């Protein structure tokens, strides 16, 4: 069964003058466990809007959104939040680490919402995760004392510490130099593969998009398949 399934998803917002602004049009997308999907798109194409829907932060205006077979639109906000906390990890361009908290304290954060062993063993689990991203020696460092690449590795450890089944990376290399960006992506690929999770990377960088198993392009709210392989792309619209 697919992990995430979007069927004819649209998203529109009502503007102050009461007109409706359509942002996403009939988006169809399936993400399977263990798969790496990349989506490229220019500024304003609807990437953040789509990411918020994929990450269960927002719901479609119309269309179907299934997470592991569960119709997300039927869930209460509370159950949607729980589903997200248990299953989705986010990696952002600007790392979004909390200043004034150590690397360990940042990575422990998602485990505060866990139960049982995950909660009681949170410091050990977080320390192991930092070890896994190569920062076992920096667990007590403040983000401000770490390089950009190291900060993104802390952010990756934080995103993956609850072993989410879906990782959403929004311009994960946008604040890094070319080489560090690829090193960080390679690390994320490796951990994602080991854990059997799915990775959706949203980027404007074609070289980062290339790393995915399947490629899409978002243009003016329409998702086109295989942005890399074809010049004349087919929109993923309709049934
Ligand atoms: N709540 C809103 N009210 C009005 N317009 C909106 C709203 N949300 C998004 N938009 C518009 O919809 C379009 C897509 O927005 P979105 O933030 O998803 O784009 P994006 O591809 O993530 O852009 P960027 O890469 O610059 O962050 C933009 O033109 C944006 O101005």
TrEMBL record:
PANTHER family: ABC TRANSPORTER ABCH.1, IMPORT ATP-BINDING PROTEIN. This is ABC transporter ATP-binding protein. One of its GO terms (cellular component) is membrane protein complex. Keywords: ATP-binding, Nucleotide-binding, Transport. SMART domains: AAA (SM00382). One of its GO terms (molecular function) is transmembrane transporter activity. Residues 4-237 form the ABC transporter domain.
